[in-house]
């Protein structure tokens, strides 16, 4: 029984009522539209973003390939290295690009390695060094996170716009009440008795 009473209270703007104003009807439709856009638009935004991120990560896995590279310089250990607290340092490496040419560039490698050591680096289709692609699990997690962030961003925009519109309706109601009071108030100014 309490649930029916609550539903009546929540849906009062939809029922016929002599005290219902046009602003109440507009607000009821506004709230409905905000929730529909949130539910449908948030779902669509999240799914589209997640799918697009999945495609980008799959393309990266297809385009990037690992290759063996040779360190050209020693990599100092953490105790003698300058910089932050990471166990990786920038150093020069040489590898063979897909077209067969020898390439040299700098990349992050583990500390304590000597010149001539072989390491694995990742290159793109043009033979440029790049980060390792995300594996399928990492890609799925990041895609899910990005989809959730897109849905949350849309929700923030929709609820913000709805709150702004409701604020405008409230201001209109206050102004209407003021005009009505200016019209009716003087009639109550006489004294009795």
From TrEMBL:
Domain of life: Bacteria
InterPro entries documented for this protein: MT1774/Rv1733c-like
Protein name according to UniProt: Integral membrane protein
Organism: Streptomyces lacrimifluminis
